[in-house]
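Predict the 3D structure for this chain.
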Amino acid sequence: MEFTSMTVEELEARLAQLPDEIEKDDADLDALDAEFKGITAELDARKAAAAKKAEIRNAVASGDGKVVAEIPTQEKRTMEEIKYNAQSPEYRTAWLKNIAQRDGQMIFGDLTETEQRAFTFTTANTGAVVPTETMNRIVELVESMAPMYDDATKTGMVKGFGVPRHKSIAAGDAAATDEGVANADEEDTFDLLALDGVEIKKHVEITRKMQWQSIDAFEAWLTGHIAKRIAVAKEAQIRARLDAVATGIAAANVLTAQTYAEGTIRAILAKIKQSGTKVWYANTNTIWNGLAGIQDGNDRPLFVPSTLDSDPTIQGRIYGGSVKVDENLADNVVYVGVPASILANDFEALFMNNAIDPKTFKTIIAGYSLFDAGLENPLAFVKATFTA
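Done. Predicted structure below.
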């Protein structure tokens, strides 16, 4: 096939069609592989030509009209540091090609010269790091799939730390006194909300069928699957801390055998001793088979469905507070409170790595996060378990 007569748009469109053709039973894999290499080579050649033209234009624009001298090695390396890093598209493509292997063979072809330079330069001292573009997509997915984590107050302390909490004034609060009489000494009660961090890990094995998917589909599946499982684990850690005595909800705010009634809702809200926007977290069954059916004394529903919120997790409102879907919760279990009081700390940014199992030749992708959470004000939340 002649590629030189095709436009860049036509070449890229044809490249996007190749993964589907590979899956056909009568596919000529050798021909498709040759076509893939030809298209990528043509695109690289045009990119190099465009860069050369830009270089000449710059030289002409500078007014000297001289041939650009050979760039010294150190200067060349500095330029590559800017061009080739975990953010560059050349490294991203090279990284994905290295993942998509079967029996030691690269399914999407060998690295081009440009990809090889980008991969070799970026991994010289750090190993095969996940491209920045992929890392950013994972972080976005984590926040969108875990409503409690998304709403929490996030910090990025890199070491274990504690947050001092002022619990009460035992004696000596501010008060009126007679003239010339000293006020009583204040006695305060403190404790420490300690967050030491827990390791959250997840790995997947890339099957032979998955390795045959297109690069974009492969990346979307990889990032989406690992991000979803990491999100579920972070959500579980937040709930575990909310349920713990030292880091979570006060014992008086943990309610059981509650009824779906207006009086119950008002009693729950009365227990929240924290200013700020309140949010109700419950799964779909609890919302629509429980909370949505509660009526006041005039047979008007307390739950007002919402269709205008930009946040798809918001299903409606109760007494002004948002009701959010959280499918991580069990039926008839509701957490309600001020989410800004949840302190969620990522000690280490989400890290991913890949390796090939020498026995099975499967590609193993592993994700790791060091994370912890706690409730700054034990009276900022209520956990209520309803009777079905």
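Residues 96 and 215 are 7 Å apart (CA to CA).
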